[in-house]
Specification:
Elements: E1 2-8, H1 10-14, H2 18-28, E2 31-38, H3 42-48, H4 58-65, E3 70-77, H5 80-88, H6 101-105, E4 114-116, H7 120-130
Antiparallel strand pairs: 1-3, 1-4, 2-3
The protein binds adenosine-3',5'-cyclic-monophosphate (CMP).
Adenosine-3',5'-cyclic-monophosphate is lined by residues 52, 57, 61, 91, 109-110, 112, 115.
Length: 152
């Protein structure tokens, strides 16, 4: 079982797409372990996007990600890091396959609606940035035996 960090970005909040996008994860059978709406500060943006801070597009990315609230989610599931990346689609909404979130709802590289961790190391780092241990909910899923076999 893995855990990943998902952010519904300011464009998702402002376009009132939160419900539709959360539904994609629920309908896939993934488990939401934590969820909260917060405003990303410039400091948090720089920590989160540390690998992009020196890139030419970073000032625009920071201005966008701090422009309105985001919804941070911790999502659990088997191979969930790759599964969620596949549900999101390619970074640019112009390149993402139809049927993915970005392919269906985004026409932009920057305003691509959702962020998700790209590796186990990123997931651990990013979950620690957005959630304290007491915010992660430990609960038993009802009906999980209809989502996957016991040996999967
Ligand atoms: P995300 O998955 O959150 O990871 C980094 C973000 O930077 C990415 O989604 C896009 O929102 C943004 N991004 C990546 N590449 C570019 C680019 N070339 N120009 C502008 N924004 C970009």
């Amino acid at each position: 079982m893995q855990r990943t960090l998902v952010l519904l970005k300011p464009d998702c909040v402002q376009r009132r797409l939160m419900g539709k996008i959360i539904s994609r994860f629920e309908e896939k059978g993934l488990k939401i372990a934590a969820m909260k709406m917060i405003r990303v500060s410039p400091e948090l943006s720089r920590e989160h996007y540390a690998e992009h801070v020196e890139k030419p597009f970073y000032p625009s990315l920071e201005s966008f990600i701090t422009s309105a609230p985001v919804v941070a989610m911790a999502i659990d599931g088997l191979e969930v890091i790759q599964v969620v990346r596949d549900i999101l689609g390619a970074t640019s909404g112009l390149k993402a396959d139809a049927g993915t979130i970005r392919g269906d709802y985004s026409s932009s590289r920057q305003m691509n609606l959702v962020h998700a961790s790209d590796s186990e190391a990123s997931a651990t780092r990013e979950l620690n940035l957005y959630f304290s241990p007491d915010e992660l909910c430990d609960y038993e899923e009802i009906g999980v035996n209809f989502l996957r076999a016991a040996d999967e």
